[in-house]
Amino acid sequence: MKISCWVLFFWLLLSIFASGSLSIDSFNQAFPIIEPDPGHTKLRLSSEGLEAIKRITNPIAAVSVIGPYRSGKSFLLNQLLSLSCYEGFGVGHMRDTKTKGIWVWGTPLELDINGVKTSVFYLDTEGFESIGKSNVYDDRIFALATVLSSVLIYNLPETIREADISRLSFAVELAEEFYGRSAGQDVAFEPAKLLWLIQRDFLQGKSVQQMVNEALQHVPNSDGNKNIDQVNQIRDSLAIMGDNSTAFSLPQPHLQRTKLCDMKDGELDPMYVKKREQLKELVASFIRPKIVQGKSLNGKEFVAFLEQILEALNKGEIPTTGSLVEVFNKGILERCLKLYSEMMAKLRLPLPEKSLQNVHENSKGETMKSFDEQHFGRHHAKKSVMQLDEEIEKVYKNFILANEYKSAKLCEALYTRCEDRMDQLQVLRLPSMAKFNAGFLQCNQSFERECVGPSKANYENRMIKMMGKSKSSFIKEYNHRLFNWLVAFSLVMVVLGRFIIKFILIEIGAWILFIFLETYTRMFWSAESLYYNPVWHFIVATWETLVYSPILDLDRWALPLAFVAAILVVYWRCYGGRTGSRWLLPLYNSHKGGTNRPRTD
């Protein structure tokens, strides 16, 4: 039993060492690090390729080759690594693409760069414009290679097309955008060294560098053609590359391209072999460790950075090079503008101008934040941001006009209501200063409380003038109307006290009031002089107390009360004498010569 345990122990140790040596030897091959999902629209990580990178402790640099499918990218990488087609990256001769996603050569080249030992990985990317893939997928591959690489080789057959410039421009902007989303918007994007590699046999008197420079020059547009503006805008977005690009021409290695993998250097075109060696030296001179936020990355850090970028690319909605960035941002702009309009539409107008402005600023801030989270491109987005700001201001102006209109409409209604109320108080059946003042105060308070918005100040001035005129008119007529009312009241009470109620004290009091009013005005020639007499002030105070109070408004109840009083008087005159009741006040005696005086015919 002990022997079998020791055998098992040694067998396990041998297995571990064997697997370790096998894993080390297995790195000398190509591994996928990025693979497409089944729908060929998004990307996902491949663990076996990442293990080849994670084990590196030195600073890492990456050299990527990008370009159209079937353009010889895999063959070119094998040539740079001095590997045959059967040793290095897989090379396809069919019409479909051989490389899927992004592949890495598992054994890095070790270079001493400025005294720093650097591990250089070579990345092979899936060619774009192949059949059965979306533009979004191609753009993600292109952008990811742009972000990860220290040297980016743009492999183009024959010449530079406008579509090639557009795709590169878009990839650079896409890389910059999602680099900012993963590393932070304040972190500057550090583009890779770009090498335009043009594979052609002759250039008709121009160097490849001249051809690239001419292709990237602005196109004159004196007529303001929109299509040319778009072409120039594409070139502007490449400004981030600055002088960080170089052009190089590489002739065809042999006319029989399908047999290249079986040919030795002696069978290839000597000019190609010479230029290939120059290209190796040129690429080696460009290589620098990958720097992110001012720091070089080792294997694990490089993989973590790759995961962040890939998550941002897959998560974010992005346009394609087949559709203009402005069109993509226009859709986002319209959604954000709708969001602003919906937030503002929740307001119940009218509002004070300051409140409306505060809501506008908050809604605009939320809208701009939403746009910043969704828009694409730092350069293309500037125009869209300006347009969104203009559109928001237009919508805000409409809300300002609507607020002014509703404010004017509301304040006008309140003003008219107060004006009608003042007119009603002018023609009270029983004039009352207390009731006028109560109505005056109520109008002022309701107007101040309910009238809001930009029209309030204007209508406040109108209210002050109207209320002032109403009050002065009421005061002017008040004493005169009250005097006439008291004269008429004294005469009515004389008649009531004499012939109907027959209360002698009521009649005497009514005569005293009547004589005072008529005699005083005759003595002093005018009724106005009466209004300064203390007796008049006492009469006015008594009148105000009787006519209006918070409990009883005699002006409103005068007719009903008079009707009830008339009924009571009639009832008393008809039936009160039969009850034999005694009155507290002295009554007139209607019998002349005693109660037993005989009736005469």
UniProtKB/TrEMBL annotation:
Instruction: Write the record's keywords in alphabetical order, separated by commas.
Output: GTP-binding, Hydrolase, Membrane, Nucleotide-binding, Signal, Transmembrane, Transmembrane helix
**Gene Ontology molecular functions:** GTP binding; GTPase activity
Q: Which PROSITE patterns match?
A: G_GB1_RHD3 (PS51715)
SUPFAM superfamilies, A to Z: Interferon-induced guanylate-binding protein 1 (GBP1), C-terminal domain (SSF48340), P-loop containing nucleoside triphosphate hydrolases (SSF52540)
Q: Which domain of life is it from?
A: Eukaryota
Q: Per UniProt, what is one Pfam family of this protein?
A: GBP_C
Indicate the transmembrane segments per the record. 557-575
Looking at the record, the residues that make up the GB1/RHD3-type G domain are 57-177
Report the leader peptide range.
1-23
Q: Which family does it belong to?
A: Belongs to the TRAFAC class dynamin-like GTPase superfamily. GB1/RHD3 GTPase family.
Please state what the protein is called. Answer: GUANYLATE-BINDING PROTEIN 4-LIKE
